[in-house]
Amino acid sequence: MRGRFALLVLVLVLFTVAPPLVLGQEPITVTANTYQYSFSEQIVFRLVAESTSQIEAITLTYRVGDEPVTNRAYPEFDPAKQVEAQYVWRLQRGEIPPGSDIEYFWRVEDADGNVVETEPITFTYMDDRFTWQHLSEGKVILYWYDADQAFGQKLLDSAVNSLIRLEENVGVELEKPVKIIVYQSKADMQEALISRGTIFEERIITLGTVVAPNIMLLHGTHADVDRTIAHELTHIVVGLATENPYADIPAWLNEGLAMYN
Hints:
Low-confidence stretches: 1-24, 249-260
CATH topology of the largest domain: Neutral Protease, domain 2
Number of domains: 2
């Protein structure tokens, strides 16, 4: 009897002294996950995480648009139970087209072998020098600034009509909407283009150009803007119709078809 009483007292003491068990607690917790960018300068990815043991490895995985290449970065940080990591992607002019969707996620590992991956985050990288408006219809999304709604609607109507005609003539349909980024001047648009040298940029005006499979940059205030829209949309539609993993359509044929349309 005395032995049973002593055992009961011991059990009660153990339950009193032992810390409470927390069910469902994740070993690694991400407390901050942010991004910030300056157009054609940099994108800053920042992560704050904590764990029940020392965090030893952090990996950032990111991709631009539908590019087949996935990039990985390994930011420097001081291993600890609570860490802050930051990766700065330094950009060249025109390296990422405005209107591009950027997707990224983090992978965090601690000393006990615990691993967590954040849910992918997607954001649209725009030229933050301007306040953009946008309209969409069918398979066209048009962005512009410093002009009224009628200006945007006129360009959108021109693009939609041209695209319908091109899809019928070529016999293909776009799977993703085309984004048209409209600039008001040569100087404004130049900052979104890859640098081609001072002499070239002084003498040549780019009226429109395809900078990604579904993104077009457009000088929206020149007199022949409707023809430029049709010309650049032809490059996009023909590119889809002739897409293959081995070779691009010959430049002379691509440009000839665009001039014809």
